[in-house]
Amino acid sequence: EDKVVQSPLSLVVHEGDTVTLNCSYEVTNFRSLLWYKQEKKAPTFLFMLTSSGIEKKSGRLSSILDKKELSSILNITATQTGDSAIYLCAPFGNEKLTFGTGTRLTIIP
Amino acid sequence: DTGVSQDPRHKITKRGQNVTFRCDPISEHNRLYWYRQTLGQGPEFLTYFQNEAQLEKSRLLSDRFSAERPKGSFSTLEIQRTEQGDSAMYLCASSLGGQGASYGYTFGSGTRLTVV
Predict the structure, then answer these.
(1) Dihedral sign for Cα atoms in the order B2, B88, A39, A48
(2) What angle do CA B41, A27, A38 make, to 5 degrees?
(3) Minimal Cα–Cα distance from A24 to chain B, Å?
(4) What's the order of all strands across the beta sheet hosting A71-76?
């Protein structure tokens, strides 16, 4: 059965701190890994990673995939209160996304 | 609006009633997915369509759940004889997919179901 584990489950930091969120997966027929941000509604897309070792960057967020270790990390630098959300990792395999439980990130002003 | 639309946004129903949700995907997307999300959990896969064909159903999807995508465009998810355990957010997503790949995987805002 496909499995996704995210850590930590919850993280509370002060504004301006840098955070690293972790995702490990076991998915058959793996093709790519997606990161989403979820506030009160539907998940919104952040990154799609297909190749190992190539960092994707968007502003203060960056992410990288390690296919050998079956893992990915999401980094957020200079955090802001608007970064408070649940961050979901979802590998794509067997024609669908499988989600972890997410990391709940809280930024204290 | 070119995003994924779901209707209704909220539904409160009495236990034992039937409910139906609708999802309108991004028009050029051939794949449509249904997920269920409960508090503190990530979305759980329920089923997906490629065009009008339902290609996979999760073991989570009991006989009370049925989904259709009659013309390969919008989809409906029906829950019969609702139970309190069906209370959740039901998310729809669409993508352009085929041969093991999927692009532009986009979620709708979800339908929040409360069974009382």
Answers:
(1) negative
(2) 30
(3) 15
(4) A3-7, A19-26, A71-76, A61-66, A56-58
What separation in angstroms does the CA of B8 have from each of A18, A67, B86, B90? 39, 40, 16, 10
Q: Tens of pLDDT along chain B (116 residues)?
A: 569 999 999 999 999 999 999 999 999 899 999 999 999 899 999 999 999 999 999 988 889 999 999 988 999 999 999 999 999 999 999 998 876 667 778 999 999 999 99
For B32, name the nearest residue in chain A, comparing CA atoms only: A96
Q: CB–CB of B42 and A102 under 8 A?
A: yes
**Residue A20: CB partners within 8 Å, gap ≥ 6?**
A73, A74, A75
Return the pLDDT at B99. 65
Closest in A31, A42, A88 to B42, CB measured:
A88
Q: Which two tokens stand for residue A50?
A: 């297909």
The alpha carbon of residue A102 is apart from the nearest alpha carbon of chain B, in Å, by 6
